[in-house]
UniProtKB/TrEMBL annotation:
PANTHER family: NITROGEN METABOLIC REGULATION PROTEIN NMR-RELATED (PTHR14194), OS05G0110300 PROTEIN (PTHR14194:SF86). Pfam families: NAD_binding_10. It comes from the Eukaryota. Residues 93-163, 180-254 form the NAD(P)-binding domain. This is NAD(P)-binding domain-containing protein. The lineage of its organism: Eukaryota, Viridiplantae, Streptophyta, Embryophyta, Tracheophyta. SUPFAM superfamilies: NAD(P)-binding Rossmann-fold domains. One of its GO terms (molecular function) is oxidoreductase activity. GO terms for cellular component: chloroplast. Residues 32-54 are annotated as: Disordered.
Amino acid sequence: MGSLVGVGGPLLSIHQCHRKYGGWLAPHTSSIPDPSSSSSSSSSSSFYSPPSSCSSSLFLCFTGSAGKRRRRGFRGVCVAMADANKRAVLVTGAAGRTGQIVYRKLKERWEQFNGRGLVRTPESKQKIGGEEDVFVGDIRDADSIAPAIQGIDALIILTSAVPKMKPDSNPAKERPEFYFEEGAYPEQIWKRKAEEYLADSGIPYTIIRAGGLLDKPGGNRELIVGKDDELLQTEYKSIPRADVAEVCIQALLHEEAKSKAFDLASKPEGVGTPTTDFRALFAQVTARF
C-alpha cells in the first residue's frame, strides 16, 4: 500500500500512491479540487500517468506555512535505478535553502537513495553543482517536469507560494516589504485545501507542519511534535532547516510516519536530548489529521 507524508507550515507532504489510483497528483495547487464541493472531481490535468516501470511513487510536499490559523511558518530522460534496493527520489526546489539540504542528504546516502533535483533555471542548476541528475523545469508546467519525474519512487516537493514584494521596496538597502491584500492570504487557503484533498484521497499520508525555519546546524536539538497549533502556545516555535530536512528523509524510511499530520518544532540547543530515534518521534502522533 502506498502512503503520503506532508510537512506544512512549512507544509511538507510525502505521498506514496499505488498504481491503482491511476496517476500522480500534479504539484499545481490551482488544479486541486475543492474537497468541500461534492461536484469536484480530478481533471486529467491534475494527474500524470505513472511510468510503466514504476508501480508506486512517494510524494513529499514542502511548501510554506499551511496551518489552520497560522499565517506564517515557514515550496525527457528516464533515470533508471542502478540498484533495485535503492529508491529514486526527486527533490523539487532543490536550489532553495531547505531543498539544497535535502538534496545533499539524499546524495550522501547513496546506498539508500538515487537522489535527483528539480530547479527552475539553468543558473539554479549550476548553483547546486550542475549534475546530470538535476533537471530544469516549472512545477506549473506538467510537461516540463515529466522527464524529472519519470521513473522515480519518491517525490519531495520543497516549493512554496511567495508574496509579491512592494514596488518601492529595496532589499539591498533595507528589510524588504511585501504586499498583502487586507484580509487575503489565498496561498494559505490553497495549502489547506491541498492538505485536506490529500488526507481525503484514501492514500496514506503524513503532513508535517514545521515552525519557523532557522539557518542553524541540525542534529543538535530535541524535536517536538504537536497538534492543531498547540506548539504556538509554548516557547518552542522554531526549528533548524537541517532538522526539517532530516525529518523529510526519515519519513521516507518509517511506517510510523504514514497517515499522520503533526506540528514540528525544536527545543533550544542544549535543552533536552537531541532526537535520534525518529521511529519513536513519529509514534508519538496518533491523530489522523
